Automatic annotation (TrEMBL):
Short name of one Pfam family: ABC_tran
Gene source species: Comamonas serinivorans
Alphabetized SUPFAM superfamilies for the sequence: P-loop containing nucleoside triphosphate hydrolases (SSF52540)
Domain named ABC transporter: residues: 5-246
Protein's name in the database: ABC transporter ATP-binding protein
Keywords: ATP-binding, Cell membrane, Membrane, Nucleotide-binding, Transport
PROSITE patterns: ABC_TRANSPORTER_2 (PS50893)
UniProt cross-references to CDD domains, sorted A to Z: ABC_Mj1267_LivG_branched
MF-aspect GO terms: ATP binding; ATP hydrolysis activity
Amino acid sequence: MAPILEIKQLTKKFGQTEIIRGIDLAVNEGERVAVIGPNGAGKSTLFNLISGRLTPTSGEVLLAGQSIGGKPPYAINRLGLARSFQITNLFGKLSVFDNLRCATLWPQGYGYTFWRFLANLHDANARAEELLQMVGLTAKREVLAMNLTYAEQRALEIGVTIAGGAQVILLDEPTAGMSNVETEHFTQLIRRVTEGKTLLTVEHDMGVVFGLADRIAVVVYGQVIAFDEPAAIQANPQVQAAYLGEAHGTQATGDALAASEG
Ligand SMILES: Nc1ncnc2c1ncn2[C@@H]1O[C@H](COP(=O)(O)OP(=O)(O)OP(=O)(O)O)[C@@H](O)[C@H]1O
């Protein structure tokens, strides 16, 4: 089976500095992949290259066999890849329900044509209703997005991300800034709403990584040094060295990798 997302010899330079240094990655349909690595390794840059916010210096990104490297984000979105934007894509002064409804209409292009918009409003309402339930915000239906708690905003953002029905979902640090309880709840939510889809997530919380990922890609200094199932990643000496190196500075990530062995 051909991979749904394939990255071939991808590079990105900022000025003279090569930040992404020849990444190859092939993600299968329905797989959940976590991208981990020390701070500054290039994880967000990689996501920006896949989702179209940045243009690759060289190399290829293929979505279902079609080249998407360098296409604008909206075009990539319409081809079936959606990315979360750390709550910046919410409309604060719209209700939860209306945020979901807009997100349902927008990727299909209804936003441009008023009559088509009206004709499809019924479908959009039904879809928004379904999304509301999926992300657990039914009780917050009429609340303005700006009045939600941070964790609720992140849940709404997931709803907005998946609203268009994209098959490949990219989430950038979905649990950042959450408490332990919220993180656990949110991990289950992500698992539920991405059922049957392909998920790529950048994540620092090793509990989330090991609870969610079928495979883990470890990015260090702009290269994928390992891409394997969680148990193999944990046992990989190169990965341990990368994290222990960082742990001299922060301790947190190395400890988390060790703790996830339990
Ligand atoms: N637009 C840019 N111009 C110049 N340098 C950049 C730009 N974006 C990112 N970088 C640099 O690229 C490197 C990788 O950054 P990136 O944000 O991709 O790392 P990361 O692995 O996501 O880090 P973190 O885990 O801390 O979020 C960093 O050294 C960063 O300063």
